[in-house]
């Protein structure tokens, strides 16, 4: 489908930007479990900050297998109202932890940064990084596919609150900021000769490129949906129990504007 910008999309993005400027400021940064974790980034901005954060969140990070992701998601995305369930990310529904798989009524592993955008694979590494993997209904996961994130034209009835069109996916309001911060994390964490992921201002036509858009929309979503307690909790669990690294844009939301 041609990568055109509809009048609705332009108006919606502009309106969102105005609301973002008028909204409550992004939530104050949480204190990292390790008080010295971000020392190398203090006082930096722009590319220097990005490079420092890349070093911080890459050094000493543990990778896990794609099979281990199943058990990790049962912990990181546990339904606080029912410990036997996980929360589905886009849908917002609760589903039994034991019903993992690819069939109807089950849940699987959604790559918020699509595997095809840079050939992430499911070997231990970017394709198994918990900071961008979430439980989701297989059908919803499949319909999102490898679409970029942007303002989308049509309501998505299988998961109310989400929208979709031929080249983009727009998640429900409650997780828009979560999506943005996961995408920003991936672009900083995986920035080297082997895997250089970038956030693009374009909706990417060539899905094999290591790019994901749309940057301006993701920044609006980051501002309008600030970091909340569940996001902080998830960040802590991944740091303490699994990968031993953090998403810096959850701890310091203000760094998004400095880097992107």
Automatic annotation (TrEMBL):
InterPro entries: Endonuclease-I (IPR007346), His-Me_finger_sf (IPR044925), TAT_signal (IPR006311). Residues 96-169 are annotated as: Disordered. Keywords: Endonuclease, Hydrolase, Nuclease, Signal. Residues 129-157 have a biased composition (Basic and acidic residues). The keyword Flavoprotein does not apply. It holds the Pfam family Endonuclease_1. The keyword Hydrolase applies. Residues 116-125 have a biased composition (Polar residues). One of its GO terms (molecular function) is endonuclease activity. This is Endonuclease I family protein. Residues 1-32 form the signal peptide.
């Amino acid at each position: 489908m041609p990568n055109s910008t509809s009048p609705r999309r332009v108006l919606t993005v502009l309106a969102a930007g105005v609301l973002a400027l008028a909204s409550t400021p992004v939530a104050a940064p949480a204190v990292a479990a390790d008080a010295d974790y971000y020392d190398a980034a203090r006082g930096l901005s722009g590319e220097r900050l990005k490079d420092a954060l890349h070093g911080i969140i890459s050094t000493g990070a543990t990778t896990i297998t794609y099979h281990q992701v199943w058990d990790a998601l049962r912990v990181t995305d546990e339904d606080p109202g029912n410990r036997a369930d996980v929360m589905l990310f886009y849908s917002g529904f609760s589903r039994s932890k034991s019903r993992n798989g690819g069939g109807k009524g089950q849940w699987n592993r959604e790559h918020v940064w699509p595997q095809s955008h840079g050939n992430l694979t499911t070997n231990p590494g970017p394709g198994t990084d918990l900071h961008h993997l979430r439980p989701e209904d297989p059908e919803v996961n499949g319909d999102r596919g490898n679409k970029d994130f942007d303002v989308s034209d049509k309501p998505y009835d299988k998961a109310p609150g989400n929208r979709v069109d031929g080249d983009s996916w727009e998640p429900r309001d409650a997780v828009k900021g979560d999506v943005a911060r996961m995408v920003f994390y991936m672009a900083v964490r995986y920035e080297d000769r082997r895997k250089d992921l970038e956030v693009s201002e374009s909706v990417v036509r060539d899905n094999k490129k290591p790019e994901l858009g749309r940057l301006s929309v993701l920044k609006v979503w980051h501002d309008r949906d600030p970091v909340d307690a569940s996001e902080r909790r998830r960040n802590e669990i991944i740091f303490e129990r699994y990968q031993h690294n953090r998403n810096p844009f959850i701890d310091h939301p203000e760094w998004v504007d400095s880097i992107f």
